[in-house]
């Protein structure tokens, strides 16, 4: 099986979310635990290791941790554990073929996992992750279309002044 994109991974626990954040920081940004702790403003990496071991982190440090790592697995886990969908704020820009292909791939993967789950061949955690991803992508497209339909201000255009 091919490795899924970081963007579509869905953590199953807070501890896994923290581990994936650090793994992403190491793989994509070449940041060590020391560097992540430094970017968070911590005096020592050992606090970070302690939080990883216990699976607990002060809420005020979640965003600095995610920003230092460059990805938001903890926020995703917290949202999904509360049965919420999380989408990026739609910009209203038109989607392109790559966006639609990614959506179609997400649907295909989710339906495949759903069929395998009901046959006892896939894990619930993987299946739920694929379903969350697909629903979030679909909601993003809905929000983008709604936002695209709304009139906006043309700040750069000539406003028809008396000059």
Automatic annotation (TrEMBL):
Domain of life assignment: Bacteria
Full protein name: Uncharacterized protein
């Amino acid at each position: 099986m091919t490795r899924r994109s970081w963007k579509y991974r869905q953590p199953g626990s807070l501890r896994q979310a923290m581990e994936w954040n650090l793994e992403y920081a190491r793989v994509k940004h070449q940041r060590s635990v020391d560097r992540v702790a430094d970017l968070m403003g911590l005096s020592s990496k050992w606090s970070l290791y302690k939080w990883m071991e216990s699976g607990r982190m002060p809420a005020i440090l979640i965003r600095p941790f995610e920003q230092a790592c460059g990805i938001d697995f903890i926020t995703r886990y917290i949202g999904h554990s509360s049965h919420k969908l999380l989408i990026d704020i739609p910009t209203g820009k038109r989607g392109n073929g790559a966006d639609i292909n990614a959506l179609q791939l997400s649907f295909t993967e989710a339906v495949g996992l759903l069929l395998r789950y009901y046959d006892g061949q896939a894990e619930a955690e993987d299946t739920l992750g694929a379903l969350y991803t697909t629903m979030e992508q679909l909601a993003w497209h809905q929000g983008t279309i709604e936002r695209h339909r709304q009139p906006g201000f043309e700040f750069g255009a000539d406003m028809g002044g008396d000059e």
